[in-house]
């Protein structure tokens, strides 16, 4: 289980791309180290929380509210008579995570219960989150999300690369056919999104002049596709500016 305050990994979800390589390798290392994926991703078994506990758990982590200060030295009470220490010790560990401190004790948890009980929902929610990694349901669901997201990302990357290679080869074929037969030439305009990935291609139709078939070095002197793409990209940019 990840230690209190430790950064958590992303398991991935629909609409979220973890940008797979480094993230997937980090998740695989969690498995190799024998640790819990559910705890490492904080995709813990939150199903055991009530709606109010979930709200108490998430709001402070988003930085929306400021927690009241807690003095671990001054705020101490003896444990109630006949009570076990396990619950208070678990709350003490959770308090360290909530207040980003170290060294909270069962006596601090006892004081919290008697003097600041409005904070118990948050502390108890943290206790449940810390124990979520032991839930086989949480682990199974987390692993499934990781595998499905990773496969979708891999397929998307492969499809883009194959599509790009296919389009470039087709552009060369169109060029050759146009040179030999005078047919319209269709070349892809390869742009990039903000993240650097190519979007679906647009095409410009260009009619090349009829070739001189007697020219012996025609095929050998055909320009490279990248040389053809550059001026077309300029044309596309000018069209976008004009619109």
Condensed summary:
This protein has 243 residues and is mainly alpha-helical.
Key terms for this structure?
243 residues; mainly alpha; two-stranded antiparallel ribbon; 8 helices; disordered N terminus
Q: Let me know the average pLDDT.
A: 65
Structural class by sheet pairing and helices = mainly alpha
Any idea what the shape is?
A: rod-shaped
Strand content: under 5%
Major β-sheet strand ordering: 1-2
The number of helical segments is 8
Helix-strand topology string: HHHHHHHEEH
Question: Using only CA atoms, what is the Rg?
Answer: 30 Å
Q: Give the distance, in angstroms, between the N- and C-terminal Cα atoms.
A: 55 Å
Q: Count the beta strands.
A: 2
What would you note in describing this structure?
This protein has about 240 residues and is mainly alpha-helical. The chain has a domain at about 20-150. The protein contains 8 helices and 2 strands. It has a two-stranded antiparallel ribbon. α3 (about 50-60) packs across α6 (about 120-130). The longest helix has about 45 residues, at about 135-180. It is rod-shaped and about 95 Å long. The model is unreliable at about 1-5, about 10-20, about 185-190 and about 195-225 (pLDDT under 50).
Question: SSE layout and pairings?
Answer:
Layout: H1 20-32, H2 37-41, H3 51-61, H4 85-99, H5 106-115, H6 120-131, H7 136-181, E1 184-189, E2 202-207, H8 225-242
Antiparallel strand pairs: 1-2
